[in-house]
Design brief:
The complex is a heterodimer of chains A (276) and B (93).
Chain A: E1 5-13, E2 19-27, H1 30-39, H2 45-53, H3 57-77, E3 88-91, E4 97-101, E5 107-114, E6 117-124, E7 130-134, H4 141-145, H5 150-158, H6 165-181, E8 195-201, E9 204-209, E10 215-222, E11 225-232, E12 236-237, H7 248-257, H8 262-275
Antiparallel strand pairs in A: 1-2, 1-12, 2-6, 3-4, 5-6, 7-11, 8-9, 9-10, 10-11
Helix pairs in contact in A: 1-3
Chain B: H1 2-17, H2 39-52, H3 68-87
Classes of the chains: A alpha+beta (276), B mainly alpha (93).
Chain lengths: 276, 93
């Protein structure tokens, strides 16, 4: 296990029977990822072949981090009875990850990268899921702001939130997590991923979608990242794995970076109240 | 020359978002994904290049772009459409 890693099995209750998904979050630089690869080859031979062709360090790091998370989640889905290198994850025609070999039958994975972090969730195909991780920053505020619909702006205002880096990042991660659950990525109009409503459940923010009422998104903080997981709306994610991520860390890291964090502070206050 | 300017603008935007990139990897055949850009980086690069080119192209138009050359081509097509709209006639191929 790499040092800055968080793994959890997600117990999900549903009216038609419970299911389990496996989550892995990682923050690690390329030298540590390469050292881990030397120590224990966790890439399938075909993945290793692809990795050796990569020229850019940023892509090397995101590939290794993403595959590390995916393998951790997929090995956990096999109760640890499979070697990571025996599992092959390839890219589909829309760049979606496809589990080809070695994993438990009918298990798929969703992968996301941001800066030096990555996230993956392994899930049963019968229960589609998607994950996104992003670091809020003013650098991307304009991009994210441009992606919000008029309704989402009202949603932020109505919830006493603001259109700052954190607020926009949260909504962006919801859209992207949904896009990944749909397996089409951001190849359709972003307006179609419009959020309809949001409320707090413990440490998580739960978002519903206007055009995809089959899904919801649960969002939480991990280190200074926002993580969102899309899943079917009737699926109830047990909060027992949520001890580690702490939403309050986001505001502090935002302030340390000099980014705006007013959404976080109001959201944290609401979350603190709901936790209490 | 106009084509070179658009492609250069794409490369400049990519360099400004992903500051660690060496200029020699920014080739026509390079994809933003293979350069290490995640979806947010890609969106920021496209926003920057559109701002620089004074264009507003729906993000969906870039969805199937495979490489930097495709992005530049999409921008040039948008430029052409703007000019044709202003002139009220189609430009020659």
């Amino acid at each position: 296990m790499l040092q800055d890693q968080f793994t959890a099995s997600l117990n999900i209750a549903r009216p038609d029977g419970n299911t389990v998904a496996w989550l892995c979050l990682l923050q690690s630089e390329l030298p540590q990822l390469e050292a881990a690869l030397r120590e224990s080859v966790y890439l399938h031979s075909q993945e290793l072949e692809y990795y050796k062709q990569l020229l850019v360090n940023a892509r090397k790091a995101s590939f290794l981090a993403g595959r590390w998370c995916a393998k951790q989640a997929l090995v956990a889905a096999c109760d640890g009875r499979q070697q990571a290198r025996a599992i092959l994850v390839q890219s589909g025609v829309l760049q979606q990850p496809v589990v080809r070999e070695g994993a438990r039958r009918a298990t798929q994975v969703s992968i996301s990268h941001a800066d030096d972090a990555a996230a993956a969730v392994a899930y049963d195909e019968s229960h589609p899921m998607g994950i996104d991780i992003e670091r809020p920053s003013d650098r991307v505020l304009n991009v994210l702001n441009g992606c919000l619909t008029a309704h989402e702006r009202k949603l932020l205002v109505g919830a006493k939130l603001t259109e700052d880096a954190l607020g926009c990042t949260w909504l962006w991660t919801c859209k992207e997590a949904l896009a990944k659950a749909m397996k089409v990525g951001l190849t359709i109009d972003l307006d179609l991923y419009e959020s309809q409503s949001a409320h707090c459940e413990g440490l998580m923010i739960v978002t519903r979608f206007k055009h995809f009422s089959q899904f919801k998104c649960v969002s939480f903080a991990w280190r200074d990242f926002v993580v969102s997981i899309a899943l079917p709306w009737k699926s109830q994610l047990s909060p027992d794995w949520m001890a580690h991520p702490d939403i309050s860390s986001l505001r502090e890291s935002q302030e340390a970076r000099g980014s705006s964090g007013s959404m976080c502070s109001s959201r944290r206050a609401e979350m603190s109240l709901s936790r209490g | 020359m106009a084509e070179d300017a658009v492609f250069q603008a794409v490369k400049d935007a990519a360099s400004s978002v992903m500051t660690d990139l060496s200029p020699d990897v920014l080739t026509e055949h390079a994809s933003l994904r293979e350069l290490g850009a995640n979806s947010l980086d890609r969106a920021e690069i496209l926003m920057r290049v559109m701002e620089q080119q004074k264009l507003m192209v729906p993000m969906i138009r870039f969805a199937m772009c495979q490489n930097l050359a495709d992005i530049a081509r999409t921008l040039r097509e948008a430029q052409r459409a703007v000019i044709e709209q202003k002139l009220g006639e189609q430009l020659p191929e």
